[in-house]
Structures are given as C-alpha cells and as structure tokens.
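The freezer alarm interrupted the setup, so I double-checked each line after restarting. Inputs confirmed:
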Amino acid sequence: MKFIPNILFLIALITGIVFFAKNVKKLIRNIKLGQDVDVSGNKSQRWKNMAMIALGQSKMVRRPVAGILHIIVYLGFIIINIEVLEIIIDGIFGTHRVFSFLGSVYGFLIGSFEVLAVLVIISILAFWARRNIIKIKRFWKSEMKGWPKNDGNYILYFELVLMSLFLVMNATDLHFQTMNSGNVISQFIAPIFSGLSEGVLHIIERSAWWLHILGILVFLNYLYYSKHLHILLAFPNTFYAKLTPNGQFNNLEAVTNEVKMMMDPNADPFAAPAEGDDDDVPAKFGASDVADLNWVQLLNAYTCTECGRCTSECPANLTGKKLSPRKIMMDTRDRLEEVGKNIDANNGEFKDDGKQLLDDYITREELWACTTCNACVEACPVSINPLSIILDMRRYLVMEQSAAPTELNNMMTNIENNGAMWPYNQMDRLNWKDE
Amino acid sequence: MSETLIVPTMADLMAAGKTPEILFWVGSAGSYDDRAKKITRAFVKILNKANVDFAVLGTEESSTGDAAKRAGNEFLFQMQAVTNIEVLNAYEVKKIVTADPHSYNTIKNEYPELGGKYEVLHHTQFIKQLFDEGRIKPSTKTYNGTRVTFHDPCYLGRANGVYEVPRDLLKLAGVELVEMKRHKRTSLCCGAGGAQMFKEPEKGDKDVNVLRTEDALKTNPKIIATGCPYCNTMMTDGIKFKEKESEIAVLDIAEIIANSQDL
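Predicted 3D structure, all chains:
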C-alpha cells in the first residue's frame, strides 16, 4: 500500500510521455510528407539564427510590450521547469523536496521560481486582457474564430493554473515554510491557509503537487493540438529558415531543366531518361496540396502560433482584402492534419478525399491579393515564410491550370511577344533617350 | 526639346572594341512608362555629369521576368532570364546598375543560379559611390530644408536590406527627412509588387497605394521620394486621388539628385 502513490505517479508519467512521443512521431511523419528541400550550407549561420531568434527572442522584442511580456513567460516556463525535475524524483522515490539538502542554494532557486511565477501570472493576465478586453485587432480577425480563439485563451488559463498551483503548493508546505528560505512569495500566501489544521494543509499541498505535475503532463500533450507547439518548433524552424535575401525566390529546378532543353539545339526531346533517373513521374509545377509543398513549409505551418503579426502588416489585409498570411499558415496546418488523419485511418496510405489545400482551404482570391512585399516574412518572430506558399500555389494556378487573372495573362503574353509587360514594340526600347 | 543625352549601347561599344565600366539596366518601366522615362533620363544626366563610362543594352534588353515569376509563371521567368543572361554574358558584363529595385533584386539574387553572375547595384547605391569618390559634389541649394519623406521600395528595403543609402543621398541634398510611421523594415508596400501593377486589386475597402499615400501625407511633406518606378506610379496615383498633386511632388531619388545638381 505504501508504494501506491509512487506507482500511480509512474503510470501518469509514463502515459504522459508515451502519448507525447506518439504525437511527436505523427508530427514528424506529417512534416515529412513535404517535398525535399536543400537546407544544407552555412550551418554556423543557422545555429546563430536559432540562438538569436528562438532562444534570444530577438524578433519578439521588435514589438516591445508583447515582446517583454513574452520573454517573462518564456523564461518563467523554462526556469520553473527545473522544479519539475525535483517533482519527478520525489514522485518516483516518494521523497519530499529531495533537493532541499542544498540549503541556501535551494532557497535561492525556489525563491527565484516564486518571483518568476508571480511575474508570469502578471504577464498572463496582461496577455489575456490584450486578447479579451483591449481586443487587439489581430486577435479578432476572421480566421481567429472558434478553436483558434479558444486555444489562445486555454493556454493562458493553463499557465495561470499551473503557476498558481506551484505557489499554493509552496504556501501549504509546512516543512518548506518552516525552512523559511526561498518562500519569498509563498510566505504571504501561507496566512490565507493559517486557520486550517495540519492534516488539511497536507491534503491541499499534496493536491496542488499532484495537479501541478498532472497539469504539466496534460499540457505537454495539449501541444500537438495547439498553436502552443511553437515552444518546441520555434527552434528547428528558425534553424531551417531561409538564409538568402527575402527578395530571392527559388528557381524551380524542374523548369530549369525544361528551359535548358528548349534552349539547347543539341538536346533530344525524345531521349530516354538517363540511367538512374528514377523520377519518371513528371514533376508537378507549384503546389495545390500540402504534399506539393516542401517540408520546411510544413514545419512552418506547425510552428505558427497565430500571433498575427504577419497579418497586421500585410498590405492586402490592411486594405480589407481576404488575404491573411496567418490564415495561409493555419490552413496549411489544418489540411496537413486532415491528410495525416486520413493516412492514420487508411493503414498508412493516403486515400483521395476529393479535397486539397487550394480552393477547399485557400481561395484564389487570397492568393492573387499578395503583393509579395515580404512584410509577413519580416514580421514573423519565428521566421515563418507564408509568401513562399502563396508563390508555390500561384505557380500551380499559372503553370498547371493556366488560371491567372486575365490581366496577368495579357501581361505575360506581352512579355512573351515583345519582352515587356506592356504591348510596346521591342524596337522602341531606347526611345526615351531622345524624348 | 530636351538636351541631348549621351547613351551608348553595348553594341556600339563592342563595335568600337570598348568595354564600359558599367551596364545601365534600364528595365521595362524605365524604357516605356512615360513617368519612369523621366527617372531614366535623370539618372543618365547624373552619369553623364560624372563622366561615367556606361552603356545600355537598348533594343537588346528584355523584361527580367520579375513580374512573370511573381505572378507564378516560373517558365516564362526562366526563359526571360536565360535569354537576358545570354546577352549579358556575350558582352562580358561584370557590373550592372539599375534604377528598378525589381530588376535589381532579380538580377542580383535570381540570375546567378541560372548562369548570370554580376555585381548588381541599385542606382542609389551607385550615385552614393559617385559622391563618395568625389566624381560629383553634393549640393544642397535646391532642396535645403525641404520636407521630404522617403517611401522604401519593398524590393530594395525588406527584400535586400538597403535602407540607409537612399536616405544618405537625401541628406546629401540637404532635405529635412521626415519618416513615416511605417518605414524601413515595417514599410508598407505601395501596392504594385507581385504583378499587382498589372491587374485590378481584389475586393477590399481601400487600395493599397491610397493607404500608403495617407501614411505619407501624415508627415506633411513637400516631396515623397522613392527609388522605384512602380512605387512612383502608385504614389503619384495616390496623390492625385487625394487631390494633392499641386502641393506635393513624387520624385525618384535620381531626380532629386539631378535637380540638386542643376541637371
């Protein structure tokens, strides 16, 4: 009987971790549905980007209020989680505050956790107010209805409860309070419980302890279903983000090969593919569904935390057009999840569901509203590139479906005929000299 | 009506057995658009004054393919790119200057992979060099203290990180530079990029160029300066929409420098 709490704890811990591992596996499987993309080269720059942007939050603080609040919550999250190590050891071995032998060091650690917990609570309340009372515009755009809106609040409630449990746990821990070292905040909460008997206090302390660790395990498994996944994926995402100038759009290799063939007078268009050339399926130009995108773009979609900084700087969105770069990312993730579930339900094989990312999620009207200005790319605090998805989908529309707006077709015909976007004679190109 | 510009073509120079210091890539807007042609001429005046040994491709130049690529027509883009690269490489071009940030971005960033490797400069960068090397002297007499706001072209600024050079030039002309709330990294697009220039905008409550013009008007400027022929068109249209064309001029940096040099 004595070991029942230890066993229950182990079961909870293992269940939590196993479920999480399963979700991570699914996550990786889904991301790998994307096309290969070359992410080699300049590893040191990649590490530097990760250190600066994800770890160092350098792009978060470009908006100082949200940036600083976020850093507090982020630091609180990381640092207070050191405490989880002690909770796990205590839980498994039935010890109580196993690190308390560290004396003043322990006091200092827990003391700083308590201060951080209070700062986190304040920041979370501020975040909540920004979303629900001040109603900052970017949190109330049309794509932020239903789950995305609730998700944002659930995360805040979760964190609020976890931090409160941590403080209550400390406040009701008589042993810890009598140590009188590190209880910088909880000593002021303790009087609230002063009328209670030692037994009741112990029950409250144990309940807070259990709820705290169970809450963390539940939260861990909530990540996969939530925008909160960014706390993990921000790191690989900033690592694999594009290193070339924002303005540089990739040149499609499949097109290069065809253009080379056309320009080369010696090329034999009917030649059999070279030995070892196994891709006999003709390349599809551009993207109409998630599997046509590359895996970094899919990683981008899972990393997006729906903060909406992109959308709030998008010229199309600011002028009332339907395009929202955030929605592009959310749609990509939603479709990818749908494809993943389809694969799970069909024994690992995707069964055509008659749907795709184009039209069923992202409309043409959205795609054609983009000015390719890179405002969204520049604004993203974790280096997501919505523009690359927009461009790949335009490529599909134009090259696979010839479905560009009429005016653009005219523009392209002009380029083909006379080397300019307007129907002017090529021979008049130098007329400006004498006008 | 206007004074003669010295504009040699690569073909002329090659026939004479000469290679110029730079190739001036005029771009389609700079060649055909009436407003942009004035920018082209202003820049050439500066080149002439500084005795820059340059040439243009003239009728051998063709669209870079920027608009086609951004509209999604990668095929047309690469056809244009490969054709242009063939011409440029045949003339053994090493250094290109252009007054169009779109051409600048495309040739600088997207051509190398397709076999076109050149040193590419935006005209503001080149003019800055001319000042730095003393080939032209700054003069503040035309624009001393004039209130000017600078609209960052996306393909110069965010796309390639060139924010300071155009501002440096404006300061050299002695203007009082006033920044819009959205500038540099957070600058708002004029609405022309990504082939939007060539189509009607999608349904919304406002045109992008009007919103950007409102940004500019808030700084109460005499001049809206920019460094892109497309931005110029969009801002000029915006100023007309706001019926401010008699009070506010939309000028390219090259025009401001040329005017300040009495050219």
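Quick read of the result. The first strand of chain B starts at residue 22 and ends at 25.
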